[in-house]
Design goal:
seven-stranded parallel β-sheet; two-stranded parallel sheet; 10 helices
Length: 285
């Protein structure tokens, strides 16, 4: 009985992947400060606990999202401790810098295992409990690169395009069950994303010096100079979780807003230029 009383004391129970550092840790801190319980996961549970401290509202767990058994075990531990999971934040992931051709098969597979298949493993582990309660919110982290791709980040962007497609489908499938799904699209935020521990770099090929190579050099200069404030992003996640009707997409940062507007304009221009050919492929009416 005491356990049930403790469960009801928290606003929500959050389950956050990649919570030992960066945005994941900041979101966990914001959720805890707001009176929520947090299941904070990372590859090293000790690193999570060291970053976030000790609290009855915090459950630090080891979770490699590419390991389905670990995902199932972490969800079971969360439910045993807090009785429910209200908000899932799929934040774990990393980047890959390099032209599409420069990326090796091993690099591509590793990226997809974490950014896409890892997200799916954790989501599948959490959803049964949410469906049983008829409530919950799945928040999947995409990127400015999940809405428009760019030279130098093509393979990384492709993983985030996958996250966008999965989340759109989840939104349609889960809404009738009382569960929300949102894809978050941050622009460049001042985190360690461009550091070596968050960004893999493919071997360079001279032919791509003017495209992907230029992006490599720009990324080095942008590191820790990004325009987005990570603390404000963490606060935005609380607003999102509190929304009665959360959006399917949540772009964050003026750079993301500008990128979306530019892509819409380019798609509209190109579609109009090729409209006659596009329309010509139907059977006659």
């Amino acid at each position: 009985m005491q356990s049930n009383i403790q469960q009801q004391a928290y606003k929500r129970v959050w389950f956050i992947t990649g919570a030992s550092r960066g945005l994941g840790a900041l979101i966990a801190e914001a959720a805890l400060a707001d009176g929520n319980a947090v299941v904070a996961t990372g590859r090293n549970a000790a690193a999570v606990a060291e970053r976030l401290g000790s609290s009855p509202a915090l459950l630090p767990l080891a979770l490699d999202v590419t390991d389905e058994a670990q995902a199932q075990a972490a969800v079971a531990a969360a439910l045993a401790t807090f009785g429910r999971i209200d908000v899932l934040v799929n934040n774990a992931g990393f980047g890959l810098l390099g032209a599409v051709e420069e990326a090796s098969e091993a690099e591509v597979r590793r990226l997809y295992e974490t950014n896409v298949f890892g997200l799916l493993k954790v989501t599948r582990a959490v959803l049964p409990a949410m469906r049983a309660r008829g409530a919950g919110h799945v928040i999947n982290f995409s990127s400015i690169g999940g809405y428009r791709s760019a030279a130098g980040f093509g393979v990384y962007c492709s993983t985030k395009f996958a996250v966008e497609g999965l989340t759109e489908a989840l939104h349609a499938e889960l809404a009738p069950l009382g569960i929300h799904a949102t894809v978050v699209e941050p622009g460049y935020f001042r985190t360690d994303f461009l550091d070596a521990n968050s960004l893999a770099v493919s071997a360079e090929m001279p032919d791509y010096a003017a495209t992907a190579g230029q992006v490599r050099r720009a990324a080095a200069g942008l590191n820790h100079q990004q325009p987005g404030d990570p603390l404000k992003l963490a606060s935005a996640m609380l607003v999102l979780a509190n929304a009665a009707q959360p959006p399917v997409r949540l772009p964050l940062g003026s750079d993301t807003l500008a990128a979306i507007a530019a892509k819409h304009a380019e798609v509209a221009r190109e579609t109009e230029a090729w409209r006659a050919l596009a329309a010509s492929t139907d059977f006659p009416a």
